[in-house]
Amino acid sequence: MSALWEAIVTGSARSGLPAFFPERAYAQVKAIADPAADYRGRLLAEYKLDIAAAHALLGRGSARAPLLGVRVPAAYAHWVDPGACYNRVGYYEVPNARVVYRERGTTRSFGIASMISWRGVWYVVHLGAVTRTGGGGVVDDPGPGPGSSAPSSTC
Q1: For 9-29, how does the pLDDT look when each residue is reduced to its tens digit (9 = 90+)?
Q2: Res. 61: pLDDT tops 90
Q3: 50: closest CA among 109, 144, 124, 116?
Q4: Cα 33 to Cα 8: distance, rounded to the nearest angstrom
Q5: What's the DSSP call for residue 76?
Q6: What is the C-alpha to C-alpha distance for residues 150 and 47, in angstroms, rounded to an integer?
């Protein structure tokens, strides 16, 4: 999550790649014609847009905003069966974690739409939104305080 926060405060999605679901793992998970193209053209492209949107949310003081933590609602973690969501293999997923930070003395937060566990490591797979209505970046449920998570479906 330190890599994710570094990406958000600097606006450089590249520095957040260690926190993002790896392409090789995605290729093993997805049962679609060209998972590499989908990964780069959709998943990674949306991550970059969402990093930029979160960076813009923080504004000019972003470099000084400390990460207080990431609240992961363990009770919402669940197994996604093979065959669901065009997947070849199953995996654990947790929706709606919360990134909690301090900005100008005020605690604030926003959501991580979905994280996937792969070989015992949790990765961001959808930062701003799982499904989208527009082409821009999304910041999931930003607000004051640590916020709260809500259960949701996977895909």
Answers
A1: 999 999 999 999 999 999 999
A2: no
A3: 124
A4: 32
A5: G
A6: 21
Spatial contact of 97 and 1, defined as CB atoms under 8 Å apart = no
Token pair of 108 as six digits? 């604030």
d(C-alpha 132, C-alpha 43), whole Å: 11
Amino acid at 84: A
pLDDT in tens, 116-128: 999 999 999 999 9
| Residue 69, C-beta contacts closer than 8 angstroms, at least 6 positions apart | 100
In the chain, what are the domain boundaries?
2-144
| Nearest CA-CA partner of 116 in 18, 13, 21 | 21
Q: How many residues would you count in the chain?
A: 155
* C-alpha span between 138 and 46 (Å, rounded): 9
